[in-house]
Design a protein that fits this description.
With 328 residues, this protein is mostly helical. It has one domain. Helix content is 62%, strand content 0%. It contains 13 helices and no strands. It has helices spanning 2-42, 46-54, 63-76, 81-88, 97-101, 116-129, 145-180, 207-211, 237-259, 267-286, 291-294, 299-305, 310-325. Helix 9 (237-259) crosses helix 12 (299-305). The protein is globular, with a radius of gyration of 23 Å.
Length: 328
């Protein structure tokens, strides 16, 4: 009987040691992959960094893994944090919020609606935005900084949000430069969107009348917008949602990053915060139901839920066009 019990206990110990060994082996593989990926990234071997990390499977709860993987895709998308801080960050807000992004060093990289650089940086943003296993896809949720704090705490989510902030600024610059066609200084030359002027606010003011209140060159629905976005009634919704999601994501992470950042490098970005808050407040006060589109940070959800184009147009009239023609 005693011998039988000993054999049973030994068997259990063997199983437990194997299980522990597997866990340790897996953790070691992940750590090694992160180390190798960072070594590859130090020499700009972006694809090798991506490959070694993807080979161990997505680790949605490992902050170091996610930041390094996002860095791999950002690297492949020609994003440079060094260039952002040494060359571009002080430009923010001049001549306008959106216009300044269009003068960033990487803004001219986007040359088509399927541009791989833009797509890769968006992949990097998405990896970070859904960190912690946040539900993605058209039936998922709109990822937020608050959700990531539940998984990673204030400090961990702050690191993730900071990288999201840098990446969204870069891709907003590419997006507005490609679809908004600013001049070399970032000044508006056309509308971004092609509008239907008959939509109305709660006050019964028409979209046409609201455009007329703007400064700049987009003061009437008759002014042409980007042909790559399409016309009212036949929009390329995915391209529009790229801009909506990027701006909303930028707006969402901004408070968490700025409230916890002690350096002076982001002072120019801090000035943008008030401008965004003001424009969002004006939209929610003027149009009932606009809160939903202001909270949209899920691209697939944006495409699936915006068959009715009216709120997309109001978002552009209150958020995109004004931020393209005015400083904070």
């Amino acid at each position: 009987m005693i011998l039988k019990i000993l054999k049973t206990n030994l068997s259990l110990l063997l199983i437990l040691s194997l299980l522990c060994g597997c866990g340790a082996d897996t953790d070691e593989k992940i750590s090694d992959a992160i180390l190798k990926a960072n070594q590859y990234l130090s020499t700009s071997k972006c694809q090798k960094a991506i490959d070694v990390l993807e080979a161990v499977g997505r680790q949605v709860s490992n902050k170091s893994y996610l930041i390094t993987l996002a860095s791999g895709y950002a690297c492949r998308g020609k994003f440079s944090e060094l260039t952002l801080f040494t060359t571009d960050i002080t430009k923010v807000g001049t001549p306008s919020i959106m216009g300044s992004f269009s003068t960033f060093s990487s803004a001219a990289d986007m040359t088509s609606i399927t541009d791989s650089d833009f797509t890769d940086v968006n992949i990097a943003i998405k990896i970070l935005a859904y960190a912690g296993g946040i539900s993605a896809g058209a039936t998922g949720v709109n990822p937020t900084s608050a959700m990531r704090q539940l998984s990673f705490g204030a400090s961990g989510s702050g690191d993730i949000d900071a990288m999201i902030l840098y990446l969204t600024m870069a891709n907003l610059g590419r997006w507005i430069r490609f679809y908004g066609a600013p001049d070399a200084s970032g000044n508006q030359t056309q509308c971004v969107l092609n509008y239907n002027g008959v939509y109305t606010l709660d006050s019964s003011a028409t979209l046409e009348a609201t455009l007329a209140l703007l400064a700049g060159t987009c003061t009437t629905a008759a002014t042409a917008g980007s042909s790559d976005i399409g016309n009212s009634g036949s929009y390329v919704t995915s391209n529009i949602c790229d801009g909506i999601v990027l701006l909303n994501t930028f707006f969402d992470v901004l408070p968490n990053v700025l409230d916890n950042y002690t350096g002076g490098e982001l002072d120019s970005v801090n000035a943008v915060r008030t401008g965004l808050e003001t424009k969002a407040g004006l939209l929610t006060a003027a149009k009932t139901g606009s809160e939903d589109i202001l909270e949209t940070t899920n691209h697939e959800k944006c495409v699936a839920e915006n068959a009715d184009e009216e709120f997309m147009q109001w978002f552009f009239v209150f958020m995109i066009e004004p931020l393209y023609i005015s400083s904070p």
